[in-house]
Every structure is written in C-alpha cells, then in structure tokens.
C-alpha cells in the first residue's frame, strides 16, 4: 500500500523527536507496536479540540467523538471521513482491522465493531500516534 506522504525511517524518527512525541511514537506509528495500556498521555484526557496524526498532522478525530472505553487506550466512535485507511490484520492469531493514517500510513491502532454509540465502532488508538490540538480561536 502506498500513501501520499512518504519518508524514510530516519526522517520520521527525526521528525517525531523534533515534535517531542512520546518515546514509543516511532515504534508504534512506523512498526505497528502497541503502547502499554493506561500509559498514554491521551488515555484520560478530555479537552475540547481535535486529534491529529503525530507523523504528518492530518486531522483524524474530533474530541466530541472520544469516549472512555475503559480499555486503557484513547477510544473514539467516529473518524474524520477519509482520514483513516483500514487494513485486515491477521497478526497475533486474531483477525482485526488495523487503522492507519490515509496520508502517511502511520499505524494508529485498531477499530472494533463493538462501540457503544450509534456508529457501533470503537477506534482503539495509541496515544503515541496522536497529537491533540486545541480549537482555533
Ligand atoms: Zn499521518
């Protein structure tokens, strides 16, 4: 799969470091690692604003779609249309739906069909993949 934004591993690493991303951000976004639950900076974070891809800045979620799923990762019931690309993930002996940034291919987390709201979806994201932005004044 190819994405509009392409950079080398070294370039992503430098960029994430320059942005002050969480230490796990590179492994999570470029190597599909999963941060430990209940450790991410946005797991219990409820300010108004929007969540963007830590790698390329694309807007992924609005804060009013965020809910507490109790699973230890930031969870959302709706993504910005077109912002996220879904990929079937058969790793770890499960069939899951991986979610990646449509612009740069950054691994974000997984989406599950067991959400509590009318969308029926639960986007289970890594904090390390996200960058919060307060609303523009
Ligand atoms: Zn991105």
From TrEMBL:
BP terms from Gene Ontology: protein repair; response to oxidative stress
Lineage: Bacteria, Pseudomonadati, Pseudomonadota, Betaproteobacteria, Burkholderiales
Cofactor(s) this protein cannot do without: Zn(2+)
All copies of domain MsrB, residue ranges: 9-135
Reaction equation(s) it catalyzes: L-methionyl-[protein] + [thioredoxin]-disulfide + H2O = L-methionyl-(R)-S-oxide-[protein] + [thioredoxin]-dithiol
Organism name: Delftia lacustris
EC number: 1.8.4.12
Keywords, ordered alphabetically: Metal-binding, Oxidoreductase, Zinc
Highest rank taxon of the organism: Bacteria
A cellular-component GO term for this protein: cytoplasm
Coiled-coil regions listed in the entry: none
GO MF annotation terms: metal ion binding; peptide-methionine (R)-S-oxide reductase activity
Protein name per the record: peptide-methionine (R)-S-oxide reductase
Top-rank EC class of the record's enzyme: oxidoreductase
Similarity remark: Belongs to the MsrB Met sulfoxide reductase family.
């Amino acid at each position: 799969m190819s994405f509009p934004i392409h950079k080398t591993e070294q370039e992503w690493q430098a960029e994430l470091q320059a942005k002050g991303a969480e230490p796990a951000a590179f492994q999570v976004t470029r190597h599909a690692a999963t941060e430990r639950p209940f450790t991410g900076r946005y797991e219990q974070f409820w300010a108004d604003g929007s969540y963007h891809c830590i790698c390329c800045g694309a807007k992924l979620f609005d804060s009013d779609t965020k809910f507490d799923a109790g699973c230890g990762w930031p969870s959302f019931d709706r993504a910005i249309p077109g912002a996220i690309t879904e990929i079937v993930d058969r790793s770890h002996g499960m069939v899951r739906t991986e979610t990646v940034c449509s612009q740069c291919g950054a691994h974000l987390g997984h989406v599950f069909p067991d959400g509590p709201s009318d969308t029926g979806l639960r986007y289970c994201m890594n904090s390390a993949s996200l960058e919060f932005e307060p609303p523009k004044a």
